Amino acid sequence: xxxxxxxxxxxxxxxxxxxxxxxxxxxxxxxxxxxxxxxxxxxxxxxxxxxxxxxxxxxxxxxxxxxxxxxxxxxxxxxxxxxxxxxxxxxxxxxxxxxxxxxxxxxxxxxxxxxxxxxxxxxxxxxxxxxxxxxxxxxxxxxxxxxxxxxxxxxxxxxxxxxxxxxxxxxxxxxxxxxxxxxxxxxxxxxxxxxxxxxxxxxxxxxxxxxxxxxxxxxxxxxxxxxxxxxxxxxxxxxxxxxxxxxxxxxxxxxxxxxxxxxxxxxxxxxxxxxxxxxxxxxxxxxxxxxxxxxxxxxxxxxxxxxxxxxxxxxxxxxxxxxxx
Length: 325
Description:
The protein contains 14 helices and no strands. The protein is globular, with a radius of gyration of 24 Å. The longest helix is centred in the middle third of the chain and has 38 residues, at 182-219. Helix content is 74%, strand content 0%. With 325 residues, it is mainly alpha-helical. The mean pLDDT is 77. It starts with a helix and ends in a 7-residue tail after the last helix.
């Protein structure tokens, strides 16, 4: 419990620091939301109307300390104001409309790449020096070295535009009404397949190489040699003794990747015109949409901190030595 309490205290301090940075960084950006609002009306907005619009958007000319206190009070209530670029929708409603698509794409791609890459890493390390170990790491790392947007564009052109096997845009067929129907779910899966597979193709090499290197180090440990000397099956030694301990660094990386799911799909969503938070963040930055930028960054930060906390708690289960710290 003392270990858990220390970690919770650390993450509370990190959350406060993130809230503060989330307040400061948008205000250091060039441009002014008031100018963006004025430009949207082609200069035909009188000063009184502009003042009323700024009030509606939650923009303020108060000193920064007062703005900071107000910001913290609203953030703790989950109130991030009204989006400038999607007026009059509240920020949370705008984020909610894109969050589910980003989670669907990011979690699908991350789980596939983590599981497949880790298993291939275990297989490659167990058969090091053989054909599998000579082929798998170079091929997957070659794919890992490709610029993602280039591979995604190539896949979209060959498998979508030329062959017609996959759709070119959006998250589902526009002729369908969203709902829990088999036709709609199949359409979502069809639109999801190509973006997810391109992410897996690029990222699987990192998981494989990390797992392989960790696995080779663990295989040299005395307890693995003892397990082999006791006559245990090779499968049990590989999975229960070696792979379980070698997996710890990949678990940490997996937790970090979980946190960055919400912001790591920008290029995916742009190339495939896939609805999600990455494209929403790009729109918010271009529009100097302070409330939406703050809401997005705070959600991303909360996801990263939560994922790291879950990994720390999971380490207690995977590595008993952590309980003694």
